[in-house]
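Why show two proteins at once? Because comparison is the fastest way to build intuition. When a single record is shown, students tend to memorize it. When two are placed side by side, the eye starts asking what differs. So, the first record is below.
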Amino acid sequence: MYRISATRLVMPIVLGVLVGLVAVHSQTAGPKPCEGPEYRQFDFWIGDWRVEGRDGKLAGTNRIERIAGGCGLQETWTAATGGGTGRSLNGYATDDGKWHQVWIGSGGLQMHLVGGLRDGSMVLEGRTIDRSRHLILQRITWTPHDDGRVRQVWEQSIDEGKSWKVGFVGMYSRTPEEHGYDVIMLIGTLVTAAREGILLLSIPG
């Protein structure tokens, strides 16, 4: 006589309970502080990137990742030559409705850039003072391409914005490891959800 194991009978029930608990938890937990669409405007920049200059040569690598529960982005830049590095923190501020970037580079450059989306591009601007105490206006534009690449243009002005000179143009292409990024993120999300469900299931009623 064919017998159905207890495991085969119980597992569908357990899985159903876990899914239900996760769904209830997500509904009762309430919205997170940074879930609005304005916080996702710069998400096209997220990833591990190879960055090529205008000459087509590798300029460096850049990793952009979400931090602080999705409330900000962290940039980690490494130049291909010279050992230059830099980091930036990026986030949307509700008090002025703009994006802010704070950059610190190993060459001593520090910038605070402010801006937002313009015609689908992220445009951030700011002011710096060089070692000769001259004012320099800074403007960086990131533009997503349909093929998944991102183009970055860094411009500077020494005449209060009357004219601009392009200092750097970089084309971002995802690294080979990045191709599996979405799958890894999906697996991580499912594992996290399962763990939360198991944790809720284990709490005494």
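Second record. Ask yourself what differs from the first in the token line.
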Amino acid sequence: MAFGRRGEFSFSGEHVGYETGVLRPRVSSVIREVAKVYKVSKEALFHSQEGRRNEARQVAMCLIRELCGTSLKEIAQLFSLGSYGTAGGACSVIEGQIKGDRKLRRRIEQIREMASSTFSQTKA
């Protein structure tokens, strides 16, 4: 994975998780699907909103970690965060809210399905 300026990243394609041998979606696929579901631009996901909660941005960070196997350090670089702890905090917030927020849970499941439908789930 290569990082450029804020929000710029590149992958050569889907990648296989080292530990599991399972194909994982591209980060760009997750970003695209989060933006689509939340009806925001992909670029908006990479900008923080000072003093305001940005659920779409937090969901993107959480799903990139979960679906793509991206480290918190890489997520922090991708989203121009001060530290990887900020990315971890965003994931913790979303994971906590999923339990009591049915609408959020449905949105995340929809994004998971859409991002995962772009490739075969198992290694041939």
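One difference worth noting in the second protein: The chain has one domain: 2-116.
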